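Researcher: We're teaching a course module on how sequence relates to structure. For the next exercise, students receive a sequence and then see the predicted structure as tokens, so they can try to spot secondary structure elements on their own. Here is the exercise chain.
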Amino acid sequence: MPQFQTLIHPTDFDEPSKEAFRLAQSLAQALGAQLVVFHVVPPPAIVADEGKIILDPQHPNPIDLWAEYRTLHANTTVPVQYAVVVGEESRATRLLEEKIRGMGEGVLVVMGTHARTGLRRLFWGSKAEEVVRNCPCPVLVVKTPSPQAPAPTEAALTTASA
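Model: And here is the predicted structure for the students to work with:
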């Protein structure tokens, strides 16, 4: 098994991404690796100090994209680097690939997926599938866990054992 020194987590801040971030933190902790969280914002955004962005130069109020991720990261000692790139959404996968190539060997991508199927997948596509096909390094795709089924009642257990 290859040793991963860097885990990169591309995010769009949805629930599957947050689940993938949690898993990436655990893996990075176990492997002694660093974690890079990566996001692409569309132009005309400007990256400001500490990863904050200005979405519209006409209204220069910086937004902290990483506030929720910093909260999710609060209980771990894994080193996390937050990376924001300005680019078209259609080029997001290519921008991720460029970032990965600049990191050298030992990189693992950990990303979330909605696990869409059928018509929803046809209309919305799958970024995860695109990354898996084109990425120059291994990719771990994480689904959000399905809601837990309700716990069986004592009556159901008694009936099942009879």
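Model: If you want an answer key for the exercise: The two ends are 47 Å apart (CA to CA). The chain has one domain: 6-161.
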